[in-house]
Amino acid sequence: MHRVVEQVTNRIIERSKPHRQSYLQRIDEAKGDGVFRNSLPCPNLAHDLAGCVGTCRSSLLDASVPNIAIISAYTDMVSAHQPYGKYPEIIKESVAKAGGNAQFAGGVPAMCDGVTQGEAGMDMSLMSRDVIAMSTVIGLSHNVFDGAILLGVCDKILPGLLMGGLQFGHLPMILIPAGPMTSGIANKDKNTVREAYAKGEVGHAELLASEVKAYHSPGTCTFYGTANSNQLMAEMLGMHLPGSSFVNAGTKLREALTRSAAERITSLTHLGRNYTPLAHVISEKAIVNAIVGLMATGGSTNETMHLVAIARAAGIRIDWNDFAEISDITPLLVRIYPNGSGDINSFQRAGGMALLIRELLKGGLLHEDVQTVAGKGFAQYTEAPLLENGRTVWRKGPEQAGDSTVIATVNKPFELLGGIKVLSGNLGRAIMKISALADGEKTFVEAPAMVFNSQQELEDAFKADRLNRDMVAVVRFQGPRANGMPELHKLITHLSITMDRGYKVGLVTDGRLSGASGKVPFAIHCTPEAVTGGLLNKVQDGDIICMDAHNSILELKVNEEELGKRQAFVHNLDATRYGLGRQVFAPLRKNLLGAEEGASSIFTYRDEN
């Protein structure tokens, strides 16, 4: 085991000890001796039985039959979740064959960041994660279930399912993915058309035709953004069956894996010999394995918030220093867009999760002695699933990459450092994703600030040809408490074009950009955010800002005397807090923690957990 991985793990264990012990104590107290539904008074249980059809009633009246909850984020509108429409019947049938019963316990909301990108709905996206967690709790609150299957893929959905599920950590749970869509046009070609549209070189029809070729069918988007980072993270946590993350939607193997997961959860309840509660799968070591996997692949920067919030829900405390230290010793082993030209299907063909995990274990970068939904020990995740006679079997995974431009070896990585750097200075703390930057020199930018208080202001400046200069764009009042911390992808095309014109460009923001951010050097998730008193609210046009990833520096080069004279800029946020239902999120928004603390309103430092 690598010395730094051990040190970080031990530090997390020590830091988390009182919270984790309290959490596990409550989990132990929640365990049952028999099926949980039998603890209900007869009138209460009768309400559950009333909705039964087929063999459901007789199964629930049998005290030896485990009852499995299905919590689903199915929606026709989110391509990654559209396949879930068929899953409940498959799951119910497979659980029944395995000797259990399954009931659809509840649906959770599922926003598509792709649909809401740059629109008012995006201001609710991050907060939807807390709503999903609470919805998961409501679905499981009837206390008639002995285990649960969680159906979710995309940006806030999978983290929200785990945050809620961990409140029932005494139950076994499995995440079942829906799989990526097949590859459309290359991501690079898609972005070329986007830039041409921004320059006025192509029209609306050409742009839409290009986008439809990229996002063309049910399944997860194929670039390595937050949705696919979530899937990798889930497998690194031991929450997926081995190798199931990136099997394409709608295939026979995908359905077979779903059936295998349904059978598996039935065997993991406290009624059998393989009791595996969720609280024991999501451990300090599993969290570290997830960080390593994300750093080795250049995963989404959103996970620096999501994984923090998931860990908090399990009584585990991690921070950005943990990410930074692991990133510094984790080699970059995967190049897929935006870190390379391939996509998630290229990664799967090149060897996928089995090969990646094999290499990371070889390098001593992963804890092998973890509990997973597949059993004890992480080495079994070096096996890959195959279809034999209509059923899933696991065989030894590849030992060499099918494409060495997509997956490298731990002895000859693409880069010696992992995916991110944490920058610190008088502007606060921020995340920079370095794996997507092709030119190492771009990790250092020092230039005059150009200050914007919204994405629209920057877009207007681009259209007015005011961005043609060396600059660090400051886009502030985009943090959790300001407007819910929306994704700011609208910025990337305009800043990329400015870079291509030969100018030195950087970006500092208290907002988000996720995993599809591409070539622009940025310092994002800047905390403390402008609206809560962060120094971003005193930056003025022309101030020199230094972004230096090599030395982990984020500095506003204005002397203390001058800063002391300046009044903090107060921005009217009404326009981003009302309309399209945003006003009903005010109670959540005002209680959101900072980005480094997970940006959640339901797991705070005031809580016991």
TrEMBL record:
Dihydroxy-acid/6-phosphogluconate dehydratase N-terminal domain segment(s): 66-379
Single GO cellular component term: cytosol
GO MF: 4 iron, 4 sulfur cluster binding; metal ion binding; phosphogluconate dehydratase activity
InterPro entries: 6-phosphgluc_deHydtase, Dihydro-acid_dehy_C, DiOHA_6PGluconate_deHydtase_CS, ILV_EDD_C, ILV_EDD_N, IlvD/EDD_N
A Pfam short name: ILV_EDD_C
Domain Dihydroxy-acid/6-phosphogluconate dehydratase C-terminal: 406-599
This enzyme's EC code(s): 4.2.1.12
Swiss-Prot/TrEMBL keywords: 4Fe-4S, Carbohydrate metabolism, Gluconate utilization, Iron, Iron-sulfur, Lyase, Metal-binding
GO biological process, one term: Entner-Doudoroff pathway through 6-phosphogluconate
Family statement: Belongs to the IlvD/Edd family.
The protein's name: Phosphogluconate dehydratase
